[in-house]
Amino acid sequence: MKVMITGATSGIGKQLSLGYAKAGHQVVACGRSQTKLDALTQAQPNISTLCFDLTQYDSYPELAADHGPLDLLILNAGDCEYIDDALNFDAKRFEKIININLIAIGYALQAWLPKLKTGGRLVLVSSSAQLLALPRAEAYGASKAGLSYLAKVLAIDLAKHQIEVTMVHPGFVQTPLTDRNTFAMPMMIGAEEAAETIMRGIAKGKRDIRFPRLFIWLMQSLSLLPFSLWRRLAMRMVSP
Ligand SMILES: NC(=O)c1ccc[n+]([C@@H]2O[C@H](COP(=O)([O-])OP(=O)(O)OC[C@H]3O[C@@H](n4cnc5c(N)ncnc54)[C@H](OP(=O)(O)O)[C@@H]3O)[C@@H](O)[C@H]2O)c1
After folding, report:
1. What is the mean pLDDT of residues 141-150?
2. Which InterPro entries does the UniProt entry name for this protein (predicted)?
3. Distance between CA atoms of 197 and 87, rounded to whole angstroms?
4. What strands lie across the sheet with 208-211, from one edge to the other?
5. Which of 31, 90, 155, 239 lies in disulfide reach of 9, CB 3.0 to 4.6 Å?
6. Closest atom of ligand 1 to CA, residue 174
7. Of 6, 9, 12, which is best to mutate to test ligand 1, by the most ligand atoms within 8 angstroms of its C-beta?
8. Is the CA virtual torsion 30, 66, 114, 194 positive or negative?
9. Integer Cα distance of 201 and 218 in angstroms
10. Distance 140 CA to ligand 1 centre (A)
11. Are β-strands 173-174 and 164-170 bridged in parallel, bridged antiparallel, or unpaired?
12. Could you count the other beta carbons within 10 Å of the beta carbon of residue 236?
């Protein structure tokens, strides 16, 4: 298979790149750091790389002829920053997170969806955070809720082109992204385990991959509460 993965230089994307390469597939790993990308190629020679910033929308590189047509396009790159003071809303921070987590997805679809072969699969890495309104997640949660909505619509609209869509909703995964968090992160798993779960789900043709199971069950159960009740619980989470 030919697999293209964004956000391949770190965390979940790095483990997905190594995992698919070790399984013998041809991987196109995308990232912003050439040094980190070179390390991937050194580890697995069947990983080729594309170095660019996904928020520089006019500078996406062309995919080399031998990189396509793709069997799997995994749009995984993303970032998380919190809105610490909703009253003095930081619009620049909001824009930064919406840009990488949502707007860049639109540009990536424009650039590479035509490179996905008939019968291929698009994978969008969202987050379980989109299930619930979480304190300080105005930017991250909104971007991922938007992304999950986008994934569902694409699953409908791309069906007639024989392109399957999978959305991924991880709980907490230990990566540089979560290393920055100072709050408790229950049921956190490692990036390698997360990547294995995603690869297994993709191989089974799943349209929605959610993990870890117990954490997702908890989030889904809480999301069924009336919002007024969840709001009170969430307010208690943040009040001293
Ligand atoms: N970790 C979790 O608990 C968790 C939970 C739910 C969902 N997710 C989602 O999983 C995905 C991967 O996250 P992760 O935890 O593996 O985070 P990570 O270790 O921080 O990796 C993020 C990747 O995205 C790349 N990236 C960020 N901004 C970019 C930009 N402007 N242009 C190009 N590449 C960019 C990073 O590149 P650099 O190396 O250059 O920074 C890195 O390769 C994200 O979409 C995240 O929202 C993570």
Report:
1. 98
2. NAD(P)-bd_dom_sf (IPR036291), Sc_DH/Rdtase_CS (IPR020904), SDR_fam (IPR002347)
3. 39
4. 47-51, 26-31, 2-5, 70-75, 116-125, 164-170, 208-211
5. 31
6. 1
7. 12
8. negative
9. 20
10. 12
11. unpaired
12. 8
